[in-house]
Design brief:
single chain, alpha/beta, five-stranded antiparallel beta sheet, globular
């Protein structure tokens, strides 16, 4: 599926390669429209990453936005903090960071687990909203993972193991809203025995973690503060850009994600353009002058400035209703974003069905698997990944390096293609014969064979007035596994299709937002 922009991009890449010139990106809208979603990730389809930092050690199931909400009087995280640690005027987030032990973190085990699950790229959450870096950070030299928690350069460790395993590596970054997001630590209780006593975020000796005392009028109300500040000082914009340029320059990620649109609204995204141009130019310099880096941002109101065509779009716990002309990336989690100890996880089957739906619509699936505070994974998470891996070992040919068909599916069936092969992936138990009504008006002479992935059983079928009827093998009827039928045919692109009405993904998106929170904090803050 090629758009005019993609054709021009491919032509430009060929021209650059032949003539030896390097792509050059300027921090402008016109120049950054050269960006194309890289071919490697369109083939990879599936990646895994982890939300993991000191918030994992909070002892609270309300830990997704713990560094902010522990300073909001009366909130669940605040109540947990009082019970587990003490009052935030005396024991603050800095103290959780300092006692955090990530002593079971093992990058090799992480990457091995993810690769066995079928992931083709692995990411590291390099920094969350809490202002703590997971690398040997030049601009955050104290509050980073080499000094606390695992006492390792987590980005480097995961990157090295991913590259050894033949996987691509990249980062997610969530720093752009930190300046306003953390400022609840400057408050004080309004009621009770500690009323008026400042929280420890007011201590000047910890401003490198807690951020300077701001002009609260510039930040806007709570709605703005947790999304992006109305106005932030140039010194913070420079800090944001310098921190992430340091990450790019020294770790060379092939995937870079900002948890929002381009920062910042008060400069129209100028500093965001500067960082994007820096990233794309850096990546191109390492790939014969042609960018191979994935640059992802969100198209969400009030989270920065969104310029269409300059980046790949990230969908947080959300899914496309249609086949996309340009790939988008659906960002999902097995449960809550951070390990809580009480989350109900999605099953392997649920996650497989979500991934299959995403791929059938020309999109990419990214799965978050949160470790425990010590860096290990609980048994349920490991079992889920192993379940996905077993399915991918059999059915991966219908996922990797595939393209969408003319219609993405019907009922629980989703279609993907590879040359003249149409994959019909059935994301439900199959207890009877399978009618593919989307394939109405096909001819017997068009079909060379139909086979079941992972089986040598003969698959019998009929071409009927209603579509292709596959006589389901008994082994499939006796199984609870999702099955894939590969239909080899002549000239797939010339075959007719019928669009079958499908349920909108709106309900799925709303359920995910309600249960886990599309904005990351367990659903307490709805999207605008």
């Amino acid at each position: 599926m090629y758009t005019m922009k993609k054709v021009l991009g491919l032509a430009l890449s060929c021209l650059l390669s032949v003539n030896g010139y390097a792509q050059k990106y300027e921090p402008t809208f016109a120049s950054l429209q050269q960006y194309e979603c890289p071919e490697w990730i369109q083939k990879a389809k599936f990646g895994i990453y982890c939300h993991w930092n000191a918030q994992s050690a909070s002892k609270s199931p309300n830990n997704g936005w713990y560094a902010r909400e522990m300073y909001i009087e009366g909130s669940p995280a605040y109540k947990d903090h009082l019970r587990n640690w003490g009052h935030p005027s005396e024991v603050g987030y800095k103290d959780i960071v300092m006692v955090w032990k990530g002593d079971k973190f093992d990058a090799k085990e992480w990457v091995s687990l993810f690769k066995n699950a079928g992931a083709k790229f692995v990411l590291t959450m390099a920094v969350h909203h809490d202002n703590f870096d997971m690398w040997d950070s030049k601009y955050q030299p104290k509050w980073n993972s080499t000094n606390y928690g695992p006492k390792q350069d987590v980005c480097k460790a995961v990157r090295d193991e991913a590259l050894k395993a033949g996987l691509r590596w990249g980062v997610t970054t969530h720093l752009e809203r930190t300046y306003s997001w953390v400022q609840t630590n400057k408050g004080a209780d309004k009621e009770g025995p500690k009323a008026g006593v400042p929280y420890d975020g007011n201590l000047k000796e910890y401003q490198d973690l807690y951020i300077e005392y701001p002009n609260f009028a510039n930040l806007g109300n709570d709605f703005c503060q947790l999304r992006t500040p109305l106005v932030s000082p140039q010194s913070w914009k420079d800090m944001w850009r310098n921190r992430l340029q340091d990450l790019i320059e020294n770790y060379h990620p092939d995937f870079f994600y900002i948890d929002g649109a381009l920062p910042y609204t008060d400069d129209g995204g100028k500093v965001g353009f500067e960082l994007e141009a820096f990233y794309l130019n850096h990546n191109a310099s390492r790939h014969n002058g042609v960018n191979e880096g994935f640059w992802g941002i969100k198209d969400i109101s009030h989270h920065g400035v969104f310029y269409p065509g300059t980046a790949s779009t990230m969908l947080e716990r959300a899914y496309s209703n249609t086949i996309q002309p340009e790939p988008k990336l659906s960002d999902e989690s097995i449960g809550a974003w951070f390990h809580t100890g009480v989350s109900e996880y999605y099953s392997s089957k649920k996650l497989i069905s979500l991934m299959v739906d995403v791929v059938s619509k020309n999109c990419i699936f990214l799965l978050n698997v949160p470790p425990k505070a010590d860096g290990s994974f609980d048994k349920e998470a490991v079992d889920i990944l192993n379940g996905i891996g077993r399915w991918m070992q059999i059915n991966g040919d219908a996922i990797y390096e595939t393209k969408p068909w003319k219609t993405f599916g019907e009922g629980s069936v989703r279609y993907t293609t590879k040359e003249n092969t149409l994959n019909a992936i059935v994301c439900s138990e199959l207890k009877s014969d399978l009618l593919l009504a989307s394939l109405k008006d096909w001819k017997v002479s068009d079909i060379r064979s139909i086979k079941l992935l992972g089986s040598n059983e003969k698959v019998n079928f009929e071409v009927t007035d209603m579509g292709i009827l596959i006589h389901t093998p008994q082994s499939v009827k006796d199984s609870d596994k999702f099955s894939t039928f590969q239909i080899e045919c002549k000239n797939l692109d010339q075959q007719p299709f019928t669009v079958i009405n499908l349920q909108s993904v709106k309900k799925l998106n709303e359920e995910a937002s309600k249960k886990f929170g599309a904005t990351g904090n367990s659903g307490a803050i709805p999207l605008p």
